[in-house]
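Weekend entry, working from home. Most of the wet-lab plans are on hold until the incubator is repaired, so I used the time to fold the two sequences that have been sitting in the queue since the last round of cloning. Logging both here for the record. First:
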Amino acid sequence: MLKTQPLSYRLYAPDNYPAAPVSSPLVLDSPHSGTTYPPDFAPAIDFGALRTAEDTWIDDLWSGALEIGVPMVAASFPRAYIDANRAADEIDALLLDAPWDGPLNETGKVKLGKGLIWRMLDDGTPLYNRKLSLAEVHHRIDACWKPYHQAVGQLLDAAHQRFGKVWHINCHSMPSVAGAYATDKPALVHPDFVLGDRDGSTSAPEFRQFVAAWLREKGYNVTENDPYKGVELVRAFGNPVAGRHSLQIEVNRKLYMDEVTLRPHEGYARLQADLRGLSEALVAWMRGQVA
């Protein structure tokens, strides 16, 4: 099902895509699963520390959905290099060696050092001992961010064209305890899952409610739009009035891996099976919505 593997992303879609329409009204994307570190990155910290920024294993945990025909776009580039779940204008001016040559959007994430290009890790460790040139930033946007967003948009458009509606899950992981510079709620102990649709602005509530009820039935602790409401990808692609429903799902890493070694533990197989079961239930529910 791996259709193509550009430098910026991996596309999992049916072999006949895009010549023929996609077979599922559900589309996944995993923007922080990339582990290919470009040679021009030149950070000031070691590889092990950089890997703490990844949504390690998330694309694989959702792989059961791919087996039932659900397409996915997964980033190849690492989140610490450029964050596909930020807007292109969320530029951190403190990182640059010259004034930015476009609009600046100083969001809360930028103020935390977590803009389009991160200035620090969740614990406050600086990523660089140098300033970045404007050319470096533009290269990362053109080579990684733009192709990734284009690929996600094309999959969503293809599903919408076939079914008249499309449901999009933006797949993420979160540490068991929020880092000092990760969010505006440092040291918060996270639940098993957090579902975010930006307070209902990126999806009809039934999507979020279906997922929450299914997971709770399996015994998981689930919160909705707290502490994570969803960021750029659901904002960019969610438009419920037009039949485009986007939901961010954060999975607690303690459920499936050792947060120090990043190796899967005994809970991995159960979570992977449950995410496949959720995907199967969602596709069946969605087909009833478009019949």
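Second, folded right after the first finished:
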Amino acid sequence: MLGPVILAASRSDQMRRFVSAAPGTKQVVDRFIAGETVDQVVPIVVAAADKGLEVTLDVVGEDITTREQSYAARDAYLELIDRLKDLGLGTKAEMSVKLSMFGQALEGGHELALANVRPVVEAAAAIGTTVTLDAEDHTTLDSMFAIHEELRKDFPQTGCVIQAYLFRTEDDARRLAANGSRVRIVKGAYKEPASVAYQEKAETDKAYVRILKILMEGSGYPMIGSHDPRLIAITQELARRAGRKLDEYEFQMLYGIRSDEHLRLAAEGHRMRVYTAYGTDWYGYFMRRLAEKPANLLFFGRSILTKG
């Protein structure tokens, strides 16, 4: 199983240096990362909107170690929101944030992350869009869900993410579906122990379908994060059974992966949102993309071998 090995490497400074220096890295990183600056990512938002797509924007860089870095992360999102406002793109782009980037892992991190993310949520609401709190490893989730609940008191459109491979997630899905939350469901991309998470893909896929059924039958807004054709078809069938209209749920896929499928779903009338990451600290995000699919790793390996 290569996935767990790659995920372990995502926390290694030595591997970070090796991968960053590899001659083929930029070619592969450019496939998954939309750019390093706001100026580079804004044209991608415009192009997506012209194609009938929406986006969720992630400023990458969750591995912070100081409060000053958490403030810089907050400010990066505020800068992004200002640019979207100036261009009238607020309704076409939401934000995805990792609370670790906002200081969640630091001393007093729960309160710090809440204080940092609130102005971002407020600014997003002011331009007609919203923020989704990304799920990270299982030790962070109680804090994330508590912050989500607190933000929804004033900004009920604030979303969160749940991960199908965790045993706890079916209970989380029932609670979130009952209170009308916007919920993105993904399979999960962190190395988790067998005590808290399914280790086999088949078990995770079964859990995904069970959770998806809970969300579709609830009163919230499901956001289906998957590139799996079978799960996309199951989603459409469960939505039909639940009597959901096409604008009562959406599909989400990663920038650079299955782009033709993005357009196909949008052409069928589905809401299709492209998860678009940008920024200079791309390493952790990039390694999780490699871990999720062996073909991505093979593509990376070929790129390194063919560049000199």
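Plan for Monday: verify the second prediction. The longest strand covers residues 271-278.
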